[in-house]
Design a protein that fits this description.
The chain has two domains: 11-75 and 171-247, 3-Layer(aba) Sandwich (D-Maltodextrin-Binding Protein, domain 2), CATH 3.40.190.10; 83-168, Periplasmic binding protein-like II (D-Maltodextrin-Binding Protein, domain 2), CATH 3.40.190. It is 39% helix and 18% strand. The strands form two sheets. The chain has a five-stranded mixed β-sheet with strand order 2-1-3-10-4. With 261 residues, the protein is an alpha/beta fold. The chain is globular and about 55 Å long. The two termini are 21 Å apart.
Length: 261
C-alpha cells in the first residue's frame, strides 16, 4: 500500500490543492507534490509545467486535452459544506454575487444553479469588490471555517452540492486527477490509486492531524460529505454539468471525457 513512485513519475511534477478534502488523495506523498490553488494548478498543467494535477473540472471542460485518471475524484452526493453562497439577504434578492477567484468549477456551478434551477440572473463580480456584493461564493477550508460564524450572524447559506443533488439526482464532481498530453497514463493510475487507498485507510489519522478545523467538523466533512469515487454515476453527473454549461453559454462546446488507460 506504500505509494512509492514509478520510475517514470517525477512526484515533484504532480500538483494538488492543499485543502483538507484533498489530503486523503495525496497520503504518503503530501510532502513531495506541489501544493497550490486550483486555478494555478490548472494553468501550469496546461503549460506543461506539471505532468499531472488535481484540477478543477472546469479546466477539463474548457481544455479537453488531458487524460482523466479513473476512479478518483473529489465530489459530493448532497450537501458538501465547503462550496456555498453566503448572502446577507434571501438568495432570490441577491442582485450582485461575488465569484471566488480560486475555483472556476465552483463559479460555473453557481452560475448553472442560478440560471437553470433558480431562474435568476444576478450580476457576477470578480476581483476586489467582493465585500460590497449582496452575496459571496466561498469554497474550501475558508468556507468550512466561516460556516458557523456566518450562520450565527444570520447569513443565508446556499450549499451548491445540495442544490445540484436535489435538482439532478446525481453526484457532483469538483475535481479529478488529470494527466498531461502525450504521457503514459497507466503509471499515474497505479500510483495515485495507491495513494487514495492509503488515505482512505488513514482518515482518522488525517482528521487527528488537522490543526485549524475542529476535529468533529473535519471528521464529519471527510466521512459524510466528501466522496472520492469517479464511477458511472459521477461520470453521468459530469456529462450533465457539461451539458448545462453549454446550454447557458458558460463553455463553448461539449467534449468527450477521456479516461486514462
Amino acid at each position: 500500500m506504500n505509494p512509492l513512485p514509478s520510475s517514470s513519475i517525477d512526484v515533484r511534477r504532480i500538483g494538488s490543492v492543499s485543502y483538507l478534502n484533498a489530503r486523503p488523495l495525496i497520503c504518503g506523498i503530501e510532502d513531495r507534490v506541489r501544493l497550490d490553488v486550483p486555478t494555478l494548478l490548472a494553468r501550469d498543467l496546461r503549460a506543461g509545467k506539471l505532468d499531472a494535477a488535481l484540477v478543477p473540472v472546469a479546466e477539463y471542460l474548457e481544455h479537453p486535452r488531458y487524460q482523466i485518471v479513473p476512479g478518483i475524484a473529489i465530489g459530493s452526493r448532497g450537501p458538501v459544506l465547503s462550496v456555498y453562497l453566503a448572502s446577507r439577504k434571501p438568495t432570490a434578492e441577491a442582485g450582485t454575487v461575488a465569484l471566488d477567484p480560486a475555483s472556476k468549477t465552483s463559479n460555473l456551478l453557481l452560475k448553472v444553479v442560478f440560471a437553470e434551477f433558480l431562474g435568476l440572473s444576478p450580476r457576477y463580480v470578480a476581483g476586489a469588490d467582493r465585500e460590497s456584493c449582496d452575496a459571496q461564493l466561498l469554497i474550501g477550508d475558508p468556507a468550512l471555517l466561516a460556516r458557523e460564524r456566518l450562520l450565527r450572524e444570520g447569513y443565508h447559506l446556499l450549499d451548491l452540492g445540495e442544490v445540484w443533488q436535489n435538482k439532478t439526482g446525481l453526484p457532483f464532481v469538483y475535481a479529478f486527477w488529470a494527466v498531461g498530453e502525450g504521457l503514459d497514463g497507466l503509471p499515474y493510475i497505479e500510483f495515485l490509486t495507491r495513494a487514495k487507498e492509503r488515505g482512505l485507510q488513514q482518515l482518522e489519522q488525517i482528521v487527528a492531524s488537522e490543526n485549524i478545523l475542529p476535529t468533529d467538523v473535519a471528521r464529519t466533512y471527510l466521512t459524510r460529505h466528501i466522496r472520492y469515487d469517479l464511477g458511472a454515476k459521477e461520470m453521468k453527473g459530469l456529462l450533465e454539468f457539461q451539458r448545462l454549461c453549454v446550454r447557458h453559454g458558460l463553455i463553448a462546446r461539449a467534449s468527450e471525457l477521456k479516461l486514462a488507460a
